[in-house]
Amino acid sequence: MMHLINSKVLALLSALMLGGLFCYIFQSYRLAADVIPESHEFYLLAPEHQQYEQPSILHGRTDVVTVTPWLAPVVWEGTFNPVLLDSIYKVKNITVTATVFAVGKYIMFLKNFLETAEQHFFVGFKVHIYVFTDRSNEVPQVRMATGRQLTVRSVPSSKRWQEISARRMELIQTLIEEQLPNHNDYIFCLDVDSKFHGRWGSESLGALVAVTHPGYYRDPRSRFPYERRPASKAYMASGEGDFYYCGGAFGGLLQEVHHLAKTCRSNFEADTQEGIEAAWQEESHLNRYMWINKPSKVLSPEYLWQDFKPKNPEVHIIRFSGVVKNYAEIRPNT
Ligand code: UD2
Fold it and tell me: How many A from CA of 80 to the centre of ligand 1?
């Protein structure tokens, strides 16, 4: 009799456990199927009843190319609606991180960079700027709007500018691994010897974002200063390559930029082992990376001009531009 009761209790318990397991699995399945991650790159939710100029697929800019052969947008003034884009990205509650390196005398550029970023870089969004410097005590005090913050990280000084420029990939990789766990957020890595002159905002967001170099976008690719030695991991053969991209500005989703930084760093280090340094250091490795891993958004040279260059007619607005500098005076070596 006792034996019979025990087996009934056992059967009841097993049924309860199975039921519980079924509910758990069913619930998890529902969650996985129903919940669309809010900050997913491709989930562009516009507010209801918003009024804006009617878009057209017939009329628009005809003086420039606005899409790459792999169908990534090329962002030029006049190709996007900033108000609409801001309203789409605001609800995602994203944080945009920017990294900037100011090692040695390059600290002199930081004040202008930070002050103009306040005026033009993702205004109205949460922004976190990381400054990497060996002169923490010389970092200028710049008033930042609510939601914007600055973190200073100490890095060692260096006797070679090539090394400073190259080490950026390693530091960006480590920053993302250690400090930035939300992989749905975005990051831009920018040169400090530059200033913002116009809006740089949500139109620039994408999974992997590259900027076409202002010095080469009108040239045939045979003239691009890619690394041409086959011994280097940054090697680009003649007839290869899409555009020549800047090392001074790139970005995207944290997970994408992490992969980029890690790959460029490891290729750079493999070159060093072989006693080779690519023609334009990490810019060469970045160009090789972007050739294989096509950027999902390409920013026109509006997003990195050079102050010494007169504005070309297709450039309607300069948003960010490298200041004129005397290399011999500011670099630790020539
Ligand atoms: C180009 C690229 C730069 C980089 C370099 C290749 C653009 C506009 N610039 O610029 O991104 O790819 O070629 O090496 O695409 N830095 C210091 N202290 C130094 C030297 C450099 O902090 O003593 C940092 C600083 O953030 C600077 C960046 O490294 O903005 C790049 O160095 P650069 O501006 O001297 O390189 P440049 O003008 O040749």
Answer: 30
Reported as type and span, the H/E element at residue 38 is: none
CA of 228 to the centre of ligand 1 (A): 21
Residue 314 annotated to the active site: no
Q: Could you tell me how far CA 125 lies from the centroid of its own chain?
A: 16
**Pairwise CA distance, residues 263 & 52, whole Å:** 42
Residue 191 in tokens = 């040169």
pLDDT the model gives residue 136: 97
Q: Which residues pair with 299 in a beta bridge?
A: 75, 211
Range of the domain at 18: 2-38
Find out whether 213 is annotated in a ligand binding site: yes
pLDDT at 288 over 50: yes
Tell me the C-alpha distance between 180 and 252, whole Å. 13
Note whether 153 and 31 are same-domain residues.
no
Structure tokens at 291: 């050739």
Q: What's the CA-to-centroid distance between 177 and ligand 1, angstroms?
A: 24
In which residue are the tokens 């997970």 written? 255
Whole-prediction pTM value? 0.88
Catalytic residue among 256, 282, 283, 302: 283
Q: State whether the beta carbon of 332 lies less than 6 angstroms from ligand 1.
A: yes
The DSSP letter of residue 112 is H
Q: Do 116 and 249 share a domain, yes or no?
A: yes
Domain count, the chain: 2
Given a cut of 90, whether residue 33 has pLDDT beyond it is no
Summarize pLDDT for 157-187 with one digit per residue, the tens.
988 877 787 789 999 999 999 988 776 799 9
Take residue 287 and report the two structure tokens written for it.
């160009």
Instruction: Give yes or no: residues 83 and 216 share one domain.
Output: yes
